[in-house]
Fold these 3 entries.
Entry 1:
Amino acid sequence: MIAPGDPGFREAAVGRVFNARKPSRTPAGVVFPETEAEVVDAVRLARTRGRQVSIRSGGHSWAAWSVRDGALLIDLGGMRELTFDADTGIATASPAVKGGVELTPFLAEHGRMFPGGHCETVGLGGFLLQGGQGWNSRRWGWGCENVVGIDVVTADGELVHANEAQHADLFWAARGSGPGFFGVVTRFHLRTHPAEPMFHDTRVFALDDLEPLLHWLHDVLPQLGVAVEPVVAATRVGRPETVLLLHTTFTGDQDPLLDTVPCRALEHFHGPTTIAEENVAMTLQNPEGYRYAADSQWTDADAATLYPLLRDLYAELPTEHSFSIWYGWAPARRLPDMAFSLERNVYLATYAIWSDAAADERHRDWVHGHHARLAEVGDGVYLGDSDFSRRPDAFMAEPNRARLEEIRARRDPDGLFVSYEMGR
Ligand SMILES: Cc1cc2nc3c(=O)[nH]c(=O)nc-3n(C[C@H](O)[C@H](O)[C@H](O)COP(=O)(O)OP(=O)(O)OC[C@H]3O[C@@H](n4cnc5c(N)ncnc54)[C@H](O)[C@@H]3O)c2cc1C
């Protein structure tokens, strides 16, 4: 264990946090297990010493959920298993495996795909536990819907396998509780899909076209195929005072409905693509080494309600890299019974991205201020793009949240694992 005062402690505590705005919180110590037996030892050590446990897989949580005052931080970065069973189509992956950089090329060798995160370096652990909004997720479902089992070290320090049939309560909780999960997942068992051809289309519009664009999108969204991911992105990378209409499809071609857009595109790029190529663009939009603040909102509000709020937000992007998205989610089916339970017609998310530490509070105020206004016309947030140290909000349906806390009370009665309260 690396403890406060030991050489390299600060690096061990926050070095693998993606966000360059590192938290000032101080863990009681950091351990880097390389085997499941070492994870068991770490959980038992925390219990013996009267410490809580926090966990890190890929380190991509914007709010650095893994770094908690006084907790023993179990950093799973050293565990790197990836397997694939051609007979069942099931892959297994360690939680620190990166969805894009590692899982995607590994599955491509087998002609398979998985709905991993849109940014290639996101770790599977946090991504899958919180839901997992991945490639082709409108059709293949949330990442967590494609988890068929987990290996998990419980608060008792036991390694168990959980799925629909055994330890089903843990399995239910693991699919959506995110940073509130009460166990250490050491392995995910994943349903993979046959590889599909992918198509990309980007149209650039003047920001002044946002109003007709949004009205049209809200009108066509119910008819768009579920293999289409339609996104409006406001970004200053590229032409100023513009918005992009991006869509990827997993049908090998574009959806003809997209050609009915009523505004004139200033530029239009389209053609076949791959997850690897799309990841390159996403990495440019989410550069490493910058300070980030993120917030989100689910909403069923109509275009007329959203337009003035989004126009203000899009016109004010504070830095070159900052961006904001309108994502046409339009759920086409009921979610299975699991902790993850909050989604709406449209997903909104905003990311302030900057490098000057002196501007931290200004940019945080900007993101969370805009999203507080969006929250007045929305119904909660997605854990993946949330920071409860600034703006707590609902992230599960009420009955699911109640059930989660009831399972926690049985599985982790002493509160060994940290939960959603994290301080600043
Ligand atoms: C550049 C970038 C792009 C992103 N793009 C997407 C996207 O396209 N779709 C999307 O859904 N999200 C996206 N996110 C959000 C991201 O998925 C979440 O922040 C997620 O938590 C990251 O997982 P991680 O393992 O890397 O994070 P970590 O910070 O390591 O983990 C976050 C928390 O999850 C819990 N946790 C992680 N691993 C385990 C485990 N093995 N056992 C128990 N608990 C665990 C812990 O509470 C931990 O503190 C993006 C984030 C970034 C930085």
Note: Residues 6 and 29 are 10 Å apart (CA to CA).
Entry 2:
Amino acid sequence: MNTIVYGVPLSPFVRKVLLTLDRKKIDYTNIPVTPMEPPEDFLAFSPLGKIPALRDDKLAISDSSVICEYLEDRYPDPPVYPHSMIEHARARWIEEYCDTKLAEVTGPPLFFERVIKRLLLEHEPDEERVQRNLNETLPPVLTYLESQVPDDHFFNGGLSVADFAVGSNMLNARHAGFQPDAQLYPRFSAYLQRLFQHPLFAARIDADAKFLGE
Ligand SMILES: N[C@@H](CCC(=O)N[C@@H](CS)C(=O)NCC(=O)O)C(=O)O
């Protein structure tokens, strides 16, 4: 059975899984379901009703971090988690921080307002909410990431789930017209530039453009 990923690729969590599959050169089919209109049997393998979910010949599971770890165990080469105990824990922490905190400040008050509302709901964004976020809640998160990102290359030297989690969320911020100020966040800006130029991200940026009708 082919590997199937359920979830629209614009979701940062779905995108993290697709990047892991792409990195490992695993063939898959993406079924772009939204949590608002899930297929009939969706809750059977995603009991929380969230995307992404993955199904293959061995199992059906949900949650992007659980899925990425499963893919790493099943297809270890090339790795998307660092091998050293310390670097592994660090990559997992950055992944968790981005899935929780970066997603909170780049998702609902930015990407949802400026992109999803227009695309799916045909509503205008609440720019007051967007500006409040850009001025108050987003900057401390960028300051933290500025202190964490590597000076050159990526989190794993090669690429890791930490890079996929940072990049997936920041790509949605970019789709919503936001990029960090290079004067305030020089390391983070340079890191993002490297990341988005990487062929794996460049391919996702192209796929997103088609999805967004750009
Ligand atoms: N911890 C989950 C979070 C997934 C998640 O929140 N996905 C969103 C879409 S971006 C969703 O399905 N939301 C619907 C809901 O919360 O009911 C993961 O890493 O997969």
Note: The beta strands are 3-6, 28-31, 53-55, 60-62.
Entry 3:
Amino acid sequence: AAVSRRASLARSRTTTAYRLVHGENDGLPGLVLDRYEDTLVLKLYTCAWMAHVPALLEAIEGALESRRVVLRLSRAAQAAGKARGDLADGATLTGTPPSGPVRFLENGLQFEADVLRGQKTGFFLDQRDNRAKVERLCRRRRVLDGFAYAGACSVYAARGGARDVTSLDASRAVLDAARRHMALNRTHPSVARARHHVIVADVFEALEALRSRGQRYDLVILDPPSFANSREEIPAALKAYHRLVRLGLSVLEPEGVLVLSSCSGQVSPEAFFATVHRAARAARRVLKELARTAHPPDHPIGFREGAYLKGLFAIAK
Ligand SMILES: C[S@@+](CC[C@H](N)C(=O)[O-])C[C@H]1O[C@@H](n2cnc3c(N)ncnc32)[C@H](O)[C@@H]1O
């Protein structure tokens, strides 16, 4: 059932990476299966699946074609994997191990996923539709891509005609990947034309520094990691979103576009959007919403708490 739900993505010639199984939303709690071209990445979030890995592989091989299946384990599951000895994070379960990052296409752009060591299964596939939306808003803009990871949003912004794109992240390794992704896509004239910069820094600190230097952007993307993993962390998460919006707006030109995302499942859409507007008012800006976004079709929502992803595209007056 999970495979047939993704039939239209599977037929695509321009997108060759997508989620095949999205945990309990597809009836398989704690289990994710992502495709990157002909590599499948099986990610287990609970050790309860470990005894069933042979049966899972049989089911996967029966339903899907692939060159290899790579196993990834959440931090919680890694200890159990080590204790068993035969299931390690990054192990290749079938086929030959990948010789490096796995190349794939997303909406005609070329990317590489570090399926052995990258965050999640190597890429943030859930942001695909938001990235495509970003592309349509970037013509001639100066874009700041905060929490850039491997620069996927940055590359879309460049293809969309941005004149200047800055990828900002705390990790030097992911920004090296962002540079490689820009280079890989220079066959698109607009990507070749765009100036690309990277900043390795904490986003909160970098935004303060950019603001005090008078640096301004026409479009600011902020796609932070989850700020709340439990109910107790919700107030702190809302505080962090509030601070982030204020800081983001402080480097955004009047009439500039704010693109903000939240993957904190504990934070409800109502609380998130209310916080964003409250922060804008505190910054003496008014947000005119262009769109609110949620999950792409390959990340279905099967139960209330499964709806973790919230996005906002807004013009900041
Ligand atoms: C959800 S991912 C971003 C995904 C990205 N927008 C994409 O489309 O692929 C979050 C990123 O934020 C980075 N990060 C987490 N905390 C950070 C911080 N305080 N400052 C800068 N980067 C941070 C992580 O290294 C990770 O790359």
Note: The chain has a mean pLDDT of 95.
